[in-house]
Amino acid sequence: MTAPSAALIRIDHAVLRSTRRALGDTPAVAVARGLSHFGEHALGWLALGAAGWATGRRREDWAAGMAGVVAAHAAGVVVKRVVRRVRPALEDVPALVGTPSRLSFPSAHSCSTAAAAVGFGPMLGRPPMVVVTGVMLVSRVLLGVHYPSDVVSGAVLGTGVASAVRRRMTRDAGRKA
């Protein structure tokens, strides 16, 4: 893979620094840490999907949503291992939370959260899921564990993968009916 351009690096660093300056001394840090734990390995999203499935209503939709989250998270991990971009290491923006690896691109949290928005949006409402996705993306930058380009790319990847999974599963479910 090619390295990010100098312009992208400058933008990533500037946004990292400005996000930390704007939100670093606010309750947003505690919220970001909570979201970080919730989103680790997509476990919070899978628990939400399992709870929705357990209600007995719209089980096929909940299953499709969970499948999209799993597929998107897996895709993010594979891309991360291929690209091997190292997490931010700016002296003035230290990481505020631990991470399971030193790899940064794309953000798996952003991948799985965007996938959850696609998959669970029909049941929970798309606007709230879009807001949660935006908050998750900002949180990863605020915590200093991702570049802005990591979170945007993760969200695009997660949206694409989850959309494809949802289309396939709902099309297959329609054939069974």
Structure description:
- The protein is mainly α.
- The chain has one domain.
- The protein has seven helices and no strands.
- It has helices at 6-23, 28-39, 43-54, 59-83, 108-124, 126-142, 148-176.
- The mean pLDDT is 91.
- It is a multi-pass membrane protein.
- It is found in: Cell membrane.
- One of its GO terms (molecular function) is hydrolase activity.
- Its main location: membrane.
- InterPro entries: PAP2/HPO, PAP2/HPO_sf.
Looking at this protein, list some descriptive labels.
177 residues, mainly alpha, 7 helices, PAP2/HPO, membrane, transmembrane, cell membrane, PAP2/HPO_sf
Looking at the chains present, what oligomeric state does this protein adopt?
single chain
Number of domains as seen in the coordinates: 1
- What is the general shape? globular
For the CA atoms, what is the radius of gyration?
A: 17 Å
Range of strand content: under 5%
Average pLDDT figure: 91
Report the total helices.
7
Estimated structural class: mainly alpha
Amount of helix: over 70%
State the total count of DSSP E strands.
0
**Biggest sheet: strands, sense, closure?**
none
**What is the succession of H and E elements?**
HHHHHHH
The low-confidence runs, each spanning 5 or more residues with pLDDT under 50, are none
N-to-C CA distance = 45 Å
Secondary structure layout:
Blueprint: H1 6-23, H2 28-39, H3 43-54, H4 59-83, H5 108-124, H6 126-142, H7 148-176
InterPro entries: PAP2/HPO, PAP2/HPO_sf
Protein name: 5'-phosphoribosyl-monophospho-decaprenol phosphatase
Keywords: Cell membrane, Hydrolase, Membrane, Transmembrane, Transmembrane helix
